[in-house]
Amino acid sequence: MADNKAQSGGIRPPVVVVLGHVDHGKTKLLDTIRKTNVAEKESGGITQHIGAYQITTNGKSITFLDTPGHEAFTAIRSRGAKVADIAVLVVAADESVKPQTKEAIKIIKSEDMPFVVAINKIDKEGANIQKVKQDLAAEEVLVEDWGGTVPVVEISAKAGKNISELLDMVLLVAELEELKEDLSKPAEGVIIELYLDKRRGHVATVLVQKGVLSLGDWIVIGKIVGKVKSMEDFKGEPVSEARPSQPVTLTGWSEVPDTGAHFVAAYSKSEADNIADSNKGVDLAPLFSFLSETTDSEKKTYNLILKADVKSSLEAIDVTLKAISSDGVRCNIVGYDIGDITENDVKTAIATKADIIGFRVSAGQSVVRLAEKEGVKVQMFDVIYELIETIRKNMTALLAPNISKIQLGKLKVLATFKKSAKSQIFGGKVLSGKAIRGAMGEISRNEVMVSVGKIGQLQHNKEDVSEVKEGLEAGIRLDVISGHPFEEIKEGDILEVYEEEEVARSL
113, 218, 395, 435: least CB-packed within 10 angstroms? Predict the structure, then answer.
């Protein structure tokens, strides 16, 4: 193994995380900076998984981590913050501080991270920059012109206004942080994202944090050992090495690593194996592990197979499913993975009576045909909250509806007649509302319920009628309903007439 003595290079590029509320313009800001068009490739213009990009301005590099803004991605945003040096907090001038803005502030403060506020959409109707600064102050974020120390830049990502000023401010903050390049060996870094490429297998976006990672290096994550078979920069260009703060994509994994996991390089297979052996017992909690804790046999079970485009999408679904709780139904994840839906997924669904839900993946024609033939429900989504809402609806469908009683009327029993095993006939006066043929009837005596039945026949003046109104007398045949009590009806009993309405339950 090469000498581990620390070697300091030059100044490394700052790693910047862009945080803020959904639709406040984080991705548009990065589009403008990169002169690419990520947002149009994303469903609904919402970034759905983390990305890492590097730009150069005034001869200096900045690495940006693009993290999703939707509320389901809290864990991913937090992870992005943990590997960043500086944050850019984007706040829309027309909407000001929103729930995810507050959450981002909490993350920034918990990491004790320097940050710059970018007030975006300053050219939009309804923009109120002073209100934004006031609302930020209420969250204990004092910008410089409010007597604080937090730099603020007013921008329009759409128009490209003041973007260079924002980048200059980021570089100034980075300069004050004195971010030294640590070239000591071995190289280390963090897994930013993971996806499945049909040709190359599992591809990971990694951020090198220390040392120089080279082609052919062995890498260890927990108990997983891999070898860097290929390395590309964020533009897809092949590179032979990556230095601190540089994001690259790697292939060569023996198993699927976890996003957010730390990796360390080794220079031989035996050394990598030794490191992996020493990591035994170090396991990250598997996704959806919280579901296995719920094994109440009285609950109905919704079996589900999940397939997603990238690992962080599964993480986001994992986070959001925790918020769905019910006393009557539980979600059981039969299997989950990244990549397209396969025939094996359908076969597993057949065996486990599971639905298949895919997020930003596809299914071949043979897979679709097999699923249709076997009656397996396959649903695919491009927006995560639509996927979660569908899971919620599918779980709700397993719940028996609540039964609501709609009171129709009240009748006092004045005389009783023939009683059989299936019904009883009696007469009475409608005290309020009305009696209706086909409605339910509950007999109470001294305010205690004694019988429940259905009004099978209704008469007024010895003629069959559909209803009898308040103040009139009626003859009634109350039919027995299986499973309900039915005692002999007596004079003076009260008949409450009602209808039952099924009310769908919600989660």
Answer: 113
Question: For residue 437, what are its two tokens?
Answer: 């043929």
Cβ burial 335-363 (10 Å sphere, 16+ → b, else e): bbbbbbbbeebbebbeeeebbbbbbbbeb
Q: How far apart are CA 312 and CA 358, in angstroms?
A: 14
Partnered with residue 214 across adjacent β-strands are 241
Cβ contacts of 299 within 8 Å, gap of 6 or more: 326, 327, 328, 329, 330
Residue of 72, 44, 143 lying closest to 313 (CA atoms): 72
Per residue, the 3-state secondary structure of 196-214, as one string, reads: EECCCEEEEEEEEEECCEE
Cα–Cα distance, 472 to 419 (Å, whole number): 23
Q: Residue-wise over 72-97: b if at least 16 C-beta within 10 A, else e?
A: bbbebbbbbbebbbbbbbbbbbbbbb
Sign of CA dihedral 271, 272, 277, 280: positive
d(CA 424, CA 479): 7
Give the tens place of pLDDT for each residue, 350-402.
999 999 999 999 999 999 999 999 999 999 999 888 999 999 999 988 888 88
Nearest alpha-carbon partner for 352 in 398, 303, 397, 302:
303
Tell me the C-alpha to C-alpha distance, in Å, between residue 168 and each of 58, 62, 148: 9, 10, 19
Which residues are within 8 A (CB) of 333 and not within 5 positions of it... i.e. 6 or more apart? 287, 288, 291, 304, 305, 306
What six digits make up the tokens of 502? 């099924």
Span 36-71, pLDDT tens digits: 433 445 555 554 555 788 888 888 999 998 766 555
36: closest CA among 14, 69, 66, 61? 66
Dihedral (C-alpha) 261, 218, 12, 52: value to the nearest 10 degrees?
A: -50
Show the tokens assigned to 264.
Answer: 């360390």
Strand, helix or coil for residue 286: coil
Q: Structure pTM?
A: 0.66
- What tokens were used for 413? 């029993």
User: How many alpha carbons fall within 13 Å on the CB side of residue 416?
Assistant: 15
Q: Are 93 and 123 contacting, i.e. CB atoms less than 8 angstroms apart? A: no
Residue 412 in tokens:
């006092």
Give the length of the chain: 507
Query: Which H or E run contains 259?
Result: none
